[in-house]
Specification:
Keywords: Iron, Metal-binding. It contains two helices and 22 strands. The protein is mainly beta. The protein has a single domain, classed as Sandwich (Jelly Rolls). The protein has a seven-stranded mixed sheet.
Length: 283
């Protein structure tokens, strides 16, 4: 898989971290988004955690981040799911943590996807789809655990499109795996998105570190959001920029503001077990 990252072992310095930063620019900041403060809903077939305002959960302080509009962490019971429903003007993907999802849509796509598969829908002018747990045995089946992510497109009235790509655990092992990149800057092996956004995933062992170099244009401010999966592991990750650091555990997120092209955001696994997380690099 294409990756824009490598590990660094040398000493950090202000000059190295931000080689092109205007010294009059404010330093980046990190704001923790603790899992305990997220929205939480439970039905007889669904348990959902909402990072941003969604459905009945409303928090004016957390309505999205740049083009990133929704991060829902869902646990769907066997034999259940979201029935056919419409979407428009949204880029939507499903990141499977455990189990399998059955997808059907009005473009005649029908398939079952498992861990490692990234299912991506560009809803454009309009599309109908359904997403359900592919395990049908309500008594003995496997729950589906997945992230549902929505990103606003930068161009409207596009024709809907559907993509799938596989990114194995090995592709993410102690590195940041580039999964999604913008149309016009599309990186080989990634899924194209109609937004100025890059998405990465990593699975990092204790004591190891990976580094993200912010994408974009020189001098243009960017935002980075980090989300740690609720995967039952004992991992944690320390997120660090020149302006500070935060330690994130399962379900936690962090807003990183004030970064520019070329700035580095560092992620070090500090827990007892591996940690899996997604990184969103946004205009």
């Amino acid at each position: 898989m294409v990756s824009w990252f490598k590990e660094h072992t040398h000493q950090r310095s202000h000059h190295y971290l931000f080689p092109s930063r205007n010294l009059s620019s404010p330093m980046p900041t990190i704001q923790l988004r603790p899992s305990s403060a997220r929205g939480h809903g439970r039905q007889n077939w669904l348990e959902a955690y909402h990072t941003f305002s969604f459905a009945r959960y409303r928090d004016p302080q957390h309505n999205g981040f740049g083009a990133l509009r929704v991060i829902n962490e869902d646990v769907i019971a066997p034999g259940s799911g979201f029935g056919e429903h419409p979407h428009r003007e949204m880029e939507i993907f499903t990141y499977i943590i455990e189990g399998a999802v059955e997808h059907q849509d009005s473009l005649s796509n029908t398939e079952i996807l498992q861990r490692g598969d990234l299912q991506f829908t560009s809803s454009g002018k309009g599309i109908w789809h359904s997403e359900s747990n592919a395990s049908k045995d309500r008594n003995h089946g496997t729950p589906l655990k997945a992230l549902q992510v929505w990103i606003r497109p930068s161009t409207s009235e596009l024709e809907p499109a559907y993509y799938t790509e596989h990114f194995s655990d090995a592709d993410k092992h102690n590195t940041l795996c580039h999964m999604i990149s913008p149309v016009g800057q599309h990186a080989e092996g990634t899924v194209p998105i109609n937004a100025n956004a890059h998405v990465y995933a990593a699975i990092v062992e204790p004591g190891r570190e990976v580094v993200h170099r912010v994408q974009g244009m020189e001098g243009k401010r960017r935002k980075v959001y980090v989300h740690v999966l609720m995967d039952g592991n004992t991992g944690a990750v320390r997120v660090e920029v020149e302006g500070g650091e935060e330690v994130l555990r399962g379900g936690d997120g962090a807003y990183v503001r004030g970064v520019e092209e070329g700035d580095e955001v560092r992620f070090k696994s500090t827990g007892e077990g591996r940690v899996e997380f997604l990184v969103f690099d946004l205009a």
